[in-house]
């Protein structure tokens, strides 16, 4: 059956309490517009580059305000509420970049820890080392929901097509990519990567994003998007500011895309052999 999905764009600051209130306000708007699945961005609860300051306000899962608020909102509106991710304190002193999907009764149906760590050095001097503070996840899941089969990713995961292909082969019809993409990488790659993951797997992609200049000084790209299995952008937000975007998701479009281009069925095993190029006295045999 078709359903209304919403992606919420935020500009999360350093105070989890304020961010929880902003999330609640935007989720109420999405629910009022008929969305039964609502997704928030990566790091909904806090964007804080100062690691000591972040650790001072982090909580474990049982005491986290974003987890609590997400559960309450799901139960209040009878929706599937997807906190794209929030920082969760772990017992070993490290942090999980963890997403939560709550059912209409407020129970946690799925947890997903970001698998690929954003350890990069960008051209403008920006440098990120997520692995210094975060524990990477190691498990991907496809969750059967009343309206669709759903797969999970977070931000930098979108650059690893094998994750999406494995979930598509396992039956995923909708892939979720909550993110806090940097402005520099977003301008170059955000839409291209999201549309590519949708097209090559014949799935819907829902990507709620952080947007604008944040309290900790970073700048994120925004442009939250919902994309269909043919690569068409069904809904998108702007570069800055809060937004709620909504699109109708019809899982039948996934089958239609797979029937047109059955690349999931046509894939074949192959080997890769590395060979020498030109050699002295001629060309390699």
From TrEMBL:
Entry annotated with the keyword Hydrolase: yes
Top-level taxonomic group: Bacteria
Keyword Transmembrane attributed: no
Record-linked InterPro entries: C-N_Hydrolase, C-N_Hydrolase_sf, Nit1/2_C-N_Hydrolase, UPF0012_CS
Boundaries of every CN hydrolase domain copy: 3-251
One Pfam family it belongs to: CN_hydrolase
One GO MF term: hydrolase activity, acting on carbon-nitrogen (but not peptide) bonds, in linear amides
Alphabetically ordered keywords of this record: Hydrolase
PANTHER family, alphabetized: DEAMINATED GLUTATHIONE AMIDASE (PTHR23088:SF27), NITRILASE-RELATED (PTHR23088)
Family: Belongs to the carbon-nitrogen hydrolase superfamily. NIT1/NIT2 family.
Name assigned to this protein: Putative amidohydrolase
High-level lineage: Bacteria, Pseudomonadati, Pseudomonadota, Alphaproteobacteria, Hyphomicrobiales
């Amino acid at each position: 059956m078709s359903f209304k999905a919403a992606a919420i764009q935020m500009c999360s600051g350093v105070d989890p309490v304020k961010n929880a209130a902003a999330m609640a306000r935007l989720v109420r708007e999405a629910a009022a517009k008929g969305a039964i699945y609502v997704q928030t961005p990566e790091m909904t609860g806090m964007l804080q580059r100062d690691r000591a300051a972040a650790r001072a306000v982090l909580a474990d899962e049982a005491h986290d305000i974003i987890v609590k608020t997400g559960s309450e909102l799901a139960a209040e509106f009878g929706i599937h509420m997807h906190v794209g991710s929030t920082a969760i304190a772990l017992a070993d002193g490290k942090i999980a970049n963890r997403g939560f999907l709550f059912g209409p009764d407020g129970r946690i149906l799925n947890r997903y820890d970001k698998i690929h760590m954003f350890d990069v050095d960008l051209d403008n001097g920006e440098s990120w080392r997520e692995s210094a503070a975060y524990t990477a996840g190691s498990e991907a899941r496809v969750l059967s929901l009343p309206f669709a089969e759903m797969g999970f990713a977070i931000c930098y995961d979108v650059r690893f097509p094998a994750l999406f292909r494995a979930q598509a082969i396992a039956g995923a019809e909708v892939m979720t990519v909550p993110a806090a993409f940097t402005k520099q990488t977003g301008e170059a790659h955000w839409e291209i990567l999201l549309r590519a993951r949708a097209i090559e797997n014949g799935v819907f992609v829902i990507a709620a994003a952080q947007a604008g200049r944040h309290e900790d000084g970073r700048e994120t790209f925004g442009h939250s998007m919902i994309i269909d299995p043919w690569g068409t952008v069904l809904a998108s937000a702007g570069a800055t500011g809060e937004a709620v975007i909504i699109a109708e998701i019809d899982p039948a479009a996934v089958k239609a895309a797979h029937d047109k281009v059955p690349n999931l069925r046509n894939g074949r095993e192959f080997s890769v052999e590395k060979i020498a190029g030109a050699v002295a006295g001629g060309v390699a045999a």
